[in-house]
Amino acid sequence: MALLGFGKILLLLLLFGHSLGAPGSFSVDYQKDCFRKDGEEFRFISGSIHYSRIPRVYWKDRLLKMYMAGLNAIQTYIPWNYHEESPGQYSFSGERDMEYFLQLAQDIGLMVILRPGPYICGEWDMGGLPAWLLNKKDIVLRSSDPDYIAAVDKWVGSRQDK
């Protein structure tokens, strides 16, 4: 089911900036009502930045400015319709190179809270859902409709090997 796969991906990506390259731990301390990172109390100081709205040439500059402003994390959406404009045709290079953007954030020292959707809202056309979904006459978006779930499964599966 798509939601289980998405949950795993989201958890892995939430900790992306923290976990790559170095062992560590991240947990919720329910007794003290706080996060713990590597055994120490931890607080997210995060801001939003949407790689899909900023030319790639400015990504590093904007991320550095966020880091220098005292942020330790960023959050960003993955707009489905930005990366799959036509069914089965995925674009993750150039201005759409999400992996490069995430690597830049990690190199700078920022953790990433990734918001993959499939529906992101984000003041984005159709909430990030691709318009081609509407080519199916009776599809019901953002539901358990089998056609919608099948499309979501393909979208989620397109990045599972990364």
From TrEMBL:
Family statement: Belongs to the glycosyl hydrolase 35 family.
Task: Kindly indicate whether the keyword Signal belongs to this entry.
Answer: yes
The answer to whether the entry has keyword Ribonucleoprotein is: no
Q: Mind telling me what this protein is named?
A: Beta-galactosidase-like
Question: Which InterPro entries is this protein grouped with?
Answer: GH, Gly_Hdrlase_35_cat, Glycoside_Hdrlase_35
Q: Which domain of life is it from?
A: Eukaryota
Q: Which Pfam families match?
A: Glyco_hydro_35 (PF01301)
Q: Which UniProt keywords apply?
A: Signal
Q: Which residues form the Glycoside hydrolase 35 catalytic domain?
A: 35-156
Q: Where is the signal peptide?
A: 1-21
Q: Which GO terms describe its molecular function?
A: hydrolase activity, hydrolyzing O-glycosyl compounds
**Which biological process terms from the Gene Ontology are attached to this UniProt entry?**
carbohydrate metabolic process
